[in-house]
Amino acid sequence: MIITFGLVAVFFAVIIFILHKVKQTNDSFTEYAVAGRSFGAKYQAMSFLNTWYPGAMFTAFAGLAAASGVISFYVLTYSLLTVVLMYVMAKPVWVWGKAFDLKTQPDLLALRYNSRHIRTVTAVIGILSGIPWLILGMQALGVMFVHLSFGKLSFSMAVLLGVFVIVIRQFWTVRLGMRGVIISDMFQGIVAYIGGSLILIGLIMWMMTTQDITLNTMDSGMFTIPSIGSEQGPLWLFSLVLTGAIGGWCWPYIFVRLFTADGVKTLKKSAAIAMPLSLIFCVSLLLFGMYASGLSSVEGHAEDVWFIVTNQAGGPLLLGLAGVIVLAATMGHTDGNIQAYGAQIANDLIGNYLKLDPKQLIIIAKVGMVIITIISAWLATMTLPALFALAVMAYQGIIQIAVPQFMGLFWKKGNKQGAIVGMTVGFITAVFLEFNFPESLPWAYGLTSGTLALVVNMSIYVLFAYLLPNDAKENQRLDTLFNLVHAKPNKG
Amino acid sequence: MTDINDPYHAGSKKWQESFGTEKLAQRQVELIYHNKVTEEEKTFIESRDMFFLSTTNNEGWPTCSYKGGPVGFVRVIDEHTIAFPDYDGNGMFLSIGNMSLSHKVGMLFIDFENPQRLRLHGIAHVYEEDELLSEFAGAQLIIRVTIDQMFINCPRYIHHYKKIEESMFTPEKGISAPIPDWKNLEAIQDVLPEKNKRK
């Protein structure tokens, strides 16, 4: 226990040391919310990965691979597609962000649709949808601490410890805003995904060489995916990939990554850096899970596969490192999450109705972060049976932002009425369907609630675009907005 | 209006002659002087959040002021006309007053982050009632400028600056703008217009 907790303590101390060295460049809200749009490609790539892959990758997704095999590779497909989308969205989002000093995802929608109300709607959907995932992240640390204590800590005590670690960490998130998040993401990302990949590859080699596990020894059920005639329906896998890929950019803490870069080229370069890292990490993780299914110790404990195998292969030292990796991934995700919500509370909810100076905005953002942290921490210590269902429901709901977001970036005809009504009806439809038909809709060939709601959402959006076409002034405004994306700077 | 093909007066021509730049100056007339806004210039002007405005009073004294607002606060109405709002200021109405009398203005648009600039000379008119008033949050008057001549300028001496943050006083639709600190000074409370007084 001394070794495992000691390693976690050392890692935490290094993070605090790094954060202690971080200096903000000025006292503007732009600096606080998007780090003054100043980061290069490497920081951007690592920050994206650290926010994208939470600690739950090592539990939920490794567990899914161990329990169900290749179906788990859908996470790889949508993760890579998300990076491709970053490349596609980089230019309009960054150019508009820079020109109009946008700080949040609702800011972008408010600009595109010339509507303040859409800012509020998007922010409310974003914050409400994120809280269940924040709580799950904190609880995941509880699971980690149970393993690091070799079962000596009760789950409730371990969750309290996890919450304590996260809450302490938030002191710096609140104080430093986005710059602190991104700089710590670099170190956390290296530990979680580069260090993690190395350990995962090592463990795969260990299982292949010492445990004689190969792809041939695995159950044939590990290699099947749902298709025509399957229980889930032929479109189920498609739905998972689609919602995962487009849903990624609906999360405010992922989207804001597009505003923290110092240019469009940087964003595109960061996508190119993130792609191979993401590929290696995700493939290693999922293959690791599949190989680990051959170990008898993993049977019936798929979600604990990461801790079981590291302990079995390398004892307390490797288990301690496994804990550090999960903590690094969880912190990156949680910090980004809390920071984004603080910025949204200040900028999109209160700042949407009151003119505030940067100091006031920063104070409100800090108070918002503290409140979100306290509420999530409090809820994390409670037993909430419907939490996971709520989180899934939230995911199906938040992806409804995708329609006005993506369509708005590339299609001038979309208007605010279609965006607000489509997104709201889509959100309600998704929640209603998820509530009544959790997991998949048997009569919809495997489409998930969120995917079906996307169809409704998109239909409303397109219908409104043609029924209520933008007037000449709005078209002129949009022309200017879109021309800006393609304007070439004159270098004289 | 200026002859777009011969925009230089005797003063400029004398110095062009002294420095041997007459042909260079004339070539620039042929290449960059014009009086119709191109699509590229429209995008450039409408993506600015500030410009410098020079005006002259009834005795010919020039003054220059900085005008700032949200991105797009200067709008290209058609290829010969641009317009911009007048926001609450210090109450002196120097530029507005000058434009009401002499009408001639010079405008300088600069992009400090991707160094480039555009100069525009024109004839300005101030309107108290204008359909654009409702389109610019916080506008109290609208100025429409008929373009006399415009040309891009060499950006070599433009220092590279970075915008940190939009001014919190930038007018925004639906949100009342805060009152600047100096309008809270006791020394001016008795002469402030009603709308600027502390509530």
UniProtKB/TrEMBL annotation, chain A:
<feature type="transmembrane region" description="Helical">
    <location>
        <begin position="6"/>
        <end position="22"/>
    </location>
</feature>
<dbReference type="Pfam" id="PF00474">
    <property type="entry name" value="SSF"/>
</dbReference>
<keyword id="KW-0915">Sodium</keyword>
<keyword id="KW-1003">Cell membrane</keyword>
<comment type="similarity">
    <text>Belongs to the sodium:solute symporter (SSF) (TC 2.A.21) family.</text>
</comment>
<feature type="transmembrane region" description="Helical">
    <location>
        <begin position="418"/>
        <end position="437"/>
    </location>
</feature>
<keyword id="KW-0769">Symport</keyword>
<feature type="transmembrane region" description="Helical">
    <location>
        <begin position="443"/>
        <end position="468"/>
    </location>
</feature>
<dbReference type="GO" id="GO:0005886">
    <property type="term" value="C:plasma membrane"/>
</dbReference>
<dbReference type="GO" id="GO:0006814">
    <property type="term" value="P:sodium ion transport"/>
</dbReference>
<feature type="transmembrane region" description="Helical">
    <location>
        <begin position="235"/>
        <end position="259"/>
    </location>
</feature>
<dbReference type="InterPro" id="IPR050277">
    <property type="entry name" value="Sodium:Solute_Symporter"/>
</dbReference>
<protein>
    <recommendedName>
        <fullName>Na+/solute symporter</fullName>
    </recommendedName>
</protein>
<dbReference type="GO" id="GO:0015293">
    <property type="term" value="F:symporter activity"/>
</dbReference>
<feature type="transmembrane region" description="Helical">
    <location>
        <begin position="305"/>
        <end position="329"/>
    </location>
</feature>
<dbReference type="InterPro" id="IPR001734">
    <property type="entry name" value="Na/solute_symporter"/>
</dbReference>
<feature type="transmembrane region" description="Helical">
    <location>
        <begin position="153"/>
        <end position="174"/>
    </location>
</feature>
<dbReference type="InterPro" id="IPR038377">
    <property type="entry name" value="Na/Glc_symporter_sf"/>
</dbReference>
<keyword id="KW-0813">Transport</keyword>
<feature type="transmembrane region" description="Helical">
    <location>
        <begin position="271"/>
        <end position="293"/>
    </location>
</feature>
<keyword id="KW-0406">Ion transport</keyword>
<feature type="transmembrane region" description="Helical">
    <location>
        <begin position="186"/>
        <end position="208"/>
    </location>
</feature>
Automatic annotation (TrEMBL), chain B:
<dbReference type="Pfam" id="PF01243">
    <property type="entry name" value="PNPOx_N"/>
</dbReference>
<feature type="domain" description="Pyridoxamine 5'-phosphate oxidase N-terminal">
    <location>
        <begin position="38"/>
        <end position="137"/>
    </location>
</feature>
<dbReference type="InterPro" id="IPR011576">
    <property type="entry name" value="Pyridox_Oxase_N"/>
</dbReference>
<protein>
    <recommendedName>
        <fullName>Pyridoxamine 5'-phosphate oxidase N-terminal domain-containing protein</fullName>
    </recommendedName>
</protein>
<dbReference type="InterPro" id="IPR012349">
    <property type="entry name" value="Split_barrel_FMN-bd"/>
</dbReference>
